[in-house]
Amino acid sequence: MTLPPKPPAREEGRVSLWRYTRLFRQDILSAQPARLYRAWMAEFRTPFFRSYLCNQPDLVDLVLKQRPDDFPKSDRIREGLAPLLGNSVFVTNGETWKRQRRIIDPSFEGGRLRDTFPAMLAAGQGAVARLQGKADGEPIEIEAEASHAAADVIFRTLFSIPIEDEVASAVFHKFREHQRAQPVLNLGALVPLPRWFPRFHRRGARRTAKEIRALITRLTAHRMTEIKAARAPDDLATKIMTTADPLTGERFDTEEMVDQVAIFFLAGHETSASALAWALYLLALYPEWQDRVAVEVLAAIGQEAPDFSDIARLRQTRDVFRETLRLYPPVPMMVRETTCPERLRDRDVPPRAQIVLSPWHQHRHERLWDKPDAFDPERFDTPDGREALRCAYMPFSAGQRVCPGAGFAMIEGVLLLALLVRAYRFDIVPDRPAMPVAHLTVRGRDGIWLRITPRGRAA
Ligand code: HEM
Fold first, then answer.
1. 150 lines ligand 1 (CB under 6 A)
2. Rounded CA gap, 96 and 403, in Å?
3. Residue of 263, 212, 220 lying closest to 242 (CA atoms)
4. What is the 267 CA–ligand 1 centroid distance (Å)?
């Protein structure tokens, strides 16, 4: 059976820092050797830094769950992302980060997810309607559609505005421009190069970051006025801006809220869009699974609009989405830093070394998963699959810094997949196969192309 696309690994053996950086600049996934799919831990030494990639579940557990405060995010991550993200929860550490999470987390709890469901549904229905004009069997690039849909979800749930809103649409388009100006945003974050090393920062990226922040400031300042006048809609932005830290009583001011909105937009739409696009690609590659999803959705909700409780009944759709997140984790690698001497496996690791946790490698690890490169949504029903799910599956990270949007994203992903597959049939375009590369998230090297036809009028 055909395997889902996987980038070729680079040749084994040492490569110079220049070559590594060049490979890295092209794509972090194919810059790595194949042994990382078998290794428990791998060390990279360069004249400037040491880096340790950890795949062994108990090492990952140590870093993310047991002693997370001893393995913070490095300042370089903040450095690389500061123009756009300021002091957002994604880049802070220590007490500032803890306070920010205490304010943000309650907005993503189960009850609140139920409240945001109608806004997600409206975005999903919008995506189905948008594709109507394009469902003529001609190849279309599905990542762009998925990004549009995921951005719509964020604006509707956060600010109760659709993507067609003037400011929302401007943020979305500026953001695309920003990525074109700085497509390897995470390079600086992942490789702690010395200051004299060329950074590939581009002036255009600073300008677009500033423009995006100015637009977001308009949204948050307006919302602050509405909150003060007691006429704000009851959405995620209002909830986050009115929640006081239970320990200090502090709330986010407008400036700090701009930082958070920027990361919600970035972390919340790029990732979900990547997952949705790959899920549709996998369903096109495995049409028997696409039919199973369509049958399940029709049996559970027919042609009706689903409600929140229907999502839990779409188990096969959820397993397809879960398997997509395993094969194409939108955030392929995460980086932490040691703060004191550590002994990891049989190695002494100095302070300020980089610890790389790689969902990409762990999810395809040959010693942790059965047939790691195969698409098999049923694997989660087997004892081995359940065990691997427990100890070697981290698309949303784990521990105290786990993605606060994980529950949100699992509902959004299943809902959008269900609505799209109920309405349309997705087929691959044989002369345009997709190949994953890691940009800010895992994307198709030349996009992800599919043909779409209304379901029932198969191509
Ligand atoms: C399929 C969708 C998503 C995936 C795979 C995903 C994955 C992740 C991962 C792996 C991290 C940890 C990164 C690190 O530690 O370096 C993270 C953090 C984060 N995510 Fe998500 N995410 C998704 C959707 C969302 C959504 C929908 C939101 C918000 C609406 C969101 C908001 C955040 C925030 C604010 C953080 C920073 C948390 C912190 O550092 O304390 N994510 N996400």
1. no
2. 17
3. 220
4. 5
